Amino acid sequence: MLLFYPCTWSITMAAYNLQAAPLVPLKYIALFGTGAFIMRSAGCTINDMWDRNLDKAVERTKIRPLARGDLTWNQAFGFLALQLSAGLCVLLQLNLYSIVLGAASLPLVTLYPFMKRITYWPQAVLGLTFNWGTMLGWAAVAGAVNWAVCLPLYAGGVCWTLVYDTVYAHQDKTDDVKVDIKSTALLFGDRTVPVLSALSASSMSLVSYAGYLNGQGLPFYAGVGLAGLQLARVLRKTEWDDRASCWKGFVQCGWVGIWIWAGASLDYALSISGLL
């Protein structure tokens, strides 16, 4: 879902901009929902292939099929080939511009699991990967990317990812130190709340700016406002040294994506009904 939500923002905002018929965003939301499920699954496979030896040393991950020895690396590679083939089938339903743009994200998908070995900013690379749909969704609807709108939307999504994946990384920070894995949770440490607060404010500001450039109405900004309140609630309530609390905070960050999509959808629905 965290991969899917940025796609929905972009698809709905593009439909609003073009005043497209309702079947247009519905079609692409269905396609991108399928694609997000497949490609996130592929990303998990790639991650487990990269980390099969590391996973054996961590209590939470040692039961994964590759780490436990239930599957071989070759079997995982074969399964990954099937996943990527299925993802390609979805991608080929789009226009040529979108196909090329979608294919351009594959290096990020492949490299992300390796980044935590060399940088304290793997969450930034994840953000660049997970929010590709802010550009791809628009291209699918409109035939090309409106960079003026999509770049701030993309940047806002990257900031959001840095927030939720840092919350996630806090549950693993003790294990990460043991196996020499890096993360923003370890980098930020005691400064986590002020840094994530700044990133949250940046995220909502950038998404709002994208909405402004797209001529969005009040429902869109109401959705962004509720998303911002959700982020503030997560940062206030999360206990950073408690694994269960970090997991809960991570899950609740997903509501940010829902609220932004809901605001954009209501804005679009009202605009095509002639009420705005």
What would your notes on this structure say?
GO terms for molecular function: 4-hydroxybenzoate polyprenyltransferase activity. It catalyses: an all-trans-polyprenyl diphosphate + 4-hydroxybenzoate = a 4-hydroxy-3-(all-trans-polyprenyl)benzoate + diphosphate. Its EC number is 2.5.1.39. The protein has helices at residues 5-18, 23-50, 52-55, 65-68, 73-91, 96-103, 106-115, 122-130, 133-142, 147-170, 173-178, 184-188, 192-213, 218-237, 243-272. The protein is mostly helical and 276 residues long. It has a single domain, classed as Tetracycline Repressor, domain 2 (Orthogonal Bundle). Helix 10 (147-170) packs antiparallel against helix 13 (192-213). The protein is globular and about 60 Å long.
Number of strands: 0
Low-confidence stretches: none
| Domain module tally | 1
Structural class: mainly alpha
Proportion of helical residues? over 70%
Task: Please give the count of helices.
Answer: 15
What is the CATH T-level topology?
Tetracycline Repressor, domain 2
SSE string, helix = H, strand = E?
A: HHHHHHHHHHHHHHH
Shape: globular
Q: Can you summarize the main beta sheet?
A: none
Strand fraction equals under 5%
What is the residue-mean pLDDT, rounded to a whole number? 92
CATH superfamily caption:
UbiA prenyltransferase
What's the CATH class label?
A: Mainly Alpha
**What is the architecture at the second tier of CATH?**
Orthogonal Bundle
Radius of gyration: 19 Å
Termini separation comes to 30 Å
Subcellular location: Membrane; Mitochondrion inner membrane
Protein name: 4-hydroxybenzoate polyprenyltransferase, mitochondrial
Main location: membrane
Pathway: Cofactor biosynthesis; ubiquinone biosynthesis
